[in-house]
Amino acid sequence: MLQDKFFLRKRIQSILLITVLLAITYGAIIITEYDIVHGFTSFPKAIAWGLTNFYPTEASLEKLPNIMEKLIETVLISVAAATLASIFALVFSLFGSKTTQLNGFMSTISRGIATLFRNIDVAVWSLILLFSFGQSALTGFFALFFVSFGFLTRAFIETIDEVGGGSVEALQATGASYTSTIAHSVIPSSIPQMMSWLLFMVETNIRSATLVGILTGTGIGFSFDLYYKGLDYNSASLVVIVILLTILCLEIISNYVRRVIL
Question: Which of 7, 80, 157, 198 is spaced 20 to 30 A from 207 at the CA atom?
Fold first, then answer.
């Protein structure tokens, strides 16, 4: 009897949730005046346009050296932002982790800063920094750095909490100092997982760098924006293909490194 009431309550909750979601979706369609029929019927036309216009040609391949130069710049900025952010994130995660915190106040401050930086989207950071640094590579670097710092700090805190507890207590029981505990227990036991998070952040940064480049006028994103707005769709398609191949190569390398270190 109790089991029947439990499942009945779950069904009612599910129906209510679906009803609310459908109502919100219908309301959004009405407010935005979105034409569902036109949206679905235009989809095949968009695919046909892509197949007939969005592909590299012999003329567009001549621009490959310039595209590769911008791509290398983008990759280097993404890697530099993630690497530098990981160093700052490691310091803040040590203060923020329940296992290695110095006191509750610093732990709360570290977690609060990480939450703030993580929850602001990279596009918003780009627009904010654009007013300070203008259209330059520095704007893209700082936008990726801030997002990477927030994400990695949170990830490192959870990593230290998961893997550092037992070994920290063992060293503290022997009278080891705080720095000795960090150097001989927390870092060695956490470093493989932290490296995995760092590689994930590098991959994410390269994907985000395209959008950041469009907003800040730098890197491979700027090349795509330039070609697309100039109606040079063949060159723009070449940029997209180069980005896709780069992300695939990095994912393969990243997975290989993860298998080696984990």
Answer: 157
- Which residues have a Cβ under 8 Å from the Cβ of 2 and sit 6 or more positions away? none
For the beta carbon of residue 252, count every other beta carbon within 10 angstroms.
Answer: 10
Residue matched to tokens 């982790």: 97
pLDDT digits (tens, 9 = 90+) for 162-206: 876 667 777 777 777 777 877 777 788 888 888 888 888 888 888
The answer to whether the CB of 258 falls within 8 A of the CB of 196 is yes
What distance, in Å, lies between the first and last C-alpha atoms of the chain? 49
- Residue 103: Cβ-neighbour burial (10 angstroms; 0-12, 13-18, 19+): exposed
Residue 160, C-beta contacts closer than 8 angstroms, at least 6 positions apart: 93, 94, 97, 99, 100, 186, 190
